[in-house]
Amino acid sequence: MSWHGNEESEPHDEGGRRRNPWETGGRRGARNPWGVQGDGARRDGEGRPTSTPDFDEFIRRSQERLREMAGGRPGTRPGGGGGRPTLPSLPWPAIVGGLVLAVLASTSAFRVDASERGVVTRFGKFQRTVGPGFHLKLPAPFEQVTKVRFDTIRSTDIGAPSGSSENLMITGDQNIIDIAYTVRWRVKNAEQFLFQLADQEGTVREVTEAAMREAISRATLDDAIGPERASIAQVVAQRTQEILDSYRSGIQVQGVEIKQADPPAAVDEAFKDVSAAQQDAQQFLNQARAYAQQVQAQAQGATAAFDKVYEQYRLAPEVTRKRMYLETMEQVLSKVDKTIVDVPGVTTYLPLSELQRRPAPAREARP
Questions:
Q1: Are 262 and 177 spatial neighbours (Cβ–Cβ below 8 Å)?
Q2: Helix, strand, coil proportions of the chain in percent (round to 5)?
Q3: Is the pLDDT reported for residue 257 higher than 70?
Q4: Contact (Cβ atoms closer than 8 angstroms) between residue 161 and residue 153
């Protein structure tokens, strides 16, 4: 390879040998592209110090490196004479085309998980819905894919328990109730879920609240805070689902749970007093019913016994009458001191002084 022209123009030493182009002024030594010698000074071709850098070697090395990267071979300028080596043209269109193809391929293939559905849009317009697996589409920005999860149960809280804020409603008996509840829902139609509603969670919140107000307005306060809470929640879930289906929202309601149903905080103490009084009244009513049932059972037993005695009296009136007399006298005289004289013609001595000194029997306390 020639350097700086033909061989005839290159320097030779006294013996006819071609001088090393890196030798300057009788000194041998490798010169870097900037002409810096071992002493650190910049020198020209004659070995004289200079301040202008020599770029030829730097350009030559740069061209060789580019040729190695591009896979080319050293060449010379046309026209003969061993001109300066040149860099062959690089295949830039092929490189650019490969990059474009790689980008298009990376934006054309996509994967959908088992719990997802992919909604493909072309310039923002719905095209199709794809299931789990690998799929192809037109590269971006022509077609875009939006993945929607189907197995995620989402919860929306309405009202806040623990009294941090109030969600007041009017019951059917014109009372006020502070209620907090949660609605659980998931996606059942990806296309409708994405394109029919602008604010999915906000719509679910508003529809559920409207259904809850409708159900509370038909129930009493005692039912709303008592045993009817579960049935009210079920009615609200059904009504919410009906409204969302009419909107074609693509949402499936999983259930509604009432977490709190209490009177307002301002009247909570008074409401507790009323509730306690109602419980006491109910307790007294239960005791009265129990006593009435007991008395009625005793009366029914006495009636049955009298009916049996009456049947015997009809069969033998005299005997039955005497027996009833004796049983009655037995019940009366069994609790007092007594002396019975039933012998004709016999005068019985009665110790009246002893009878007077005897203490009077205590009367039985009656209820």
A1: yes
A2: 45, 20, 35
A3: yes
A4: no
Instruction: Give backbone dihedrals phi and psi of 74, rounded to 5 degrees, phi first.
Output: -60, 140
Task: Indicate the pairing of strand 251-262 with strand 176-187.
Answer: antiparallel
- How many whole angstroms separate alpha carbon 254 and alpha carbon 153? 8
What integer pLDDT is reported at residue 76 of this predicted model? 46
- For the full predicted model, state whether its pTM sits above 0.85: no
Burial 309-325 (b: 16+ CB within 10 A, else e): eeeebeeeeeebeeeee
Helix orientation angle between 268-315 and 317-333, rounded to the nearest 10 degrees: 130
Average pLDDT, the chain: 75
Residue in this structure with the two tokens 């020209």, named with its chain if needed: 44
For residue 358, is pLDDT > 90? no
Query: Class assignment of domain 154-263?
Result: alpha beta
Query: Which pair of structure tokens corresponds to residue 186?
Result: 């998931």
Mapped onto helix, strand or coil, the DSSP state of residue 345 is coil
Q: Are 118 and 130 in contact (CB under 8 A)?
A: yes
The CA dihedral of 124, 130, 136, 137, to the nearest 10 degrees, is: -10
Helix, strand or coil, per DSSP, at residue 206 = helix
